[in-house]
Design brief:
Elements (H helix, E strand, L loop, with lengths): L4 H17 L6 H20 L8 H20 L5 H10 L7 H10 L6 E3 L12 E3 L1
Antiparallel strand pairs: 1-2
Length: 132
């Protein structure tokens, strides 16, 4: 049970943000598109937890990415109050929304390269290789 403590806490946070984000989002279709990866991946992670256990760091990063997606879906990145406040406080010409959506997607790609371990890689390596 101790090994489930962190993943269950992260699940509670993600679900709380999910239910908050669905209350009066700025644009329903944008919310759906931003939250769709969370809706698909969260059940998959829960169903495969006992067979494909990730590290606690991986679960923390996945939860952080999910929260960013859901908050971005609720406000849309262009209308995020935090970024509007930063724009006004720093006297910027435009909001700094580009990095908020691109940086997490660069740090946590949706589909990492799959490891080929069947020994039949095109490169001829027997111990496996990474293929895209």
């Amino acid at each position: 049970m101790a090994e489930l403590r962190l993943p269950l806490r992260l699940l509670a946070v993600v679900l709380a943000v999910f239910f908050w984000s669905m209350i009066a989002p700025r644009d329903g279709f944008t919310w759906f598109l931003e939250v769709l990866p969370v809706i698909v991946v969260l059940p998959l992670l829960a169903l495969t937890y006992r067979h494909f256990r990730f590290t606690d760091l991986a679960y923390c990063l996945i939860a952080l990415h999910a929260v960013i997606l859901m908050v971005g879906g609720h406000y849309t990145y262009a209308e995020m109050p935090l970024f509007n406040w930063l724009r006004d406080a720093l006297d910027l010409a435009a909001t700094i929304t580009t990095g908020s959506g691109i940086l997490p997607r660069a740090l946590f790609p949706p589909s990492p390269p799959a490891k080929s371990c069947c020994g039949t890689c095109r490169c001829g390596r027997v111990d496996g290789c990474f293929s895209s």
